[in-house]
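Progress against Task 2.4 (sequence-to-structure conversion) is shown through the following example record, which the project officer requested during the mid-term review.
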Amino acid sequence: MWPEEDIPDDASVYMRIHKNFISDGDFRPNAFRDQGGGMSVDWNKYSSPVETRNRGKTPSDNAVIGMVASEIRKIDALAVKHTPIQENSFDEGGNRLKPNRAHSEVIGEKTTEVRVKLSRIFAWQIRLDGQIA
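C-alpha cells generated for the chain above:
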C-alpha cells in the first residue's frame, strides 16, 4: 500500500487531454474538469509524460500537459493532493481501477475563470501527434 505524500511546490503534475478537447493544436479550457473527487493528474515523482499518456484507454487519442504544483495552488484556493490508487480499488460505478502510485488530484471548483487560469500555466509534454514537446 502506498502512503499519501505531500507534493512539493516545485513538483509537476501531468494530465491527459483527450483529442475531443483539442482543435488546431490547442485545447479548450473545459478539458479541466473533475472526475470523482477532483481533477485527475499524475505526480512527476512517480510518472513520466509517456506513462501518463499510456494510462489512457487509447493512448494515441491523448496529449499530455504538465503544470507546476505551486502555480496551481496560486489559483483560487485550488489544492494539489497525492491520492495513489491502491490495488483492489474501484470507481464510483464499481469498475476496477488499475493501481497508480502517481495518481493525484487537483481539488477545488473548476469555474470558467479557474479553467482559463489553468490554461495559462500549462506546458505541452506530448502533443496529440505523439511529438514530445
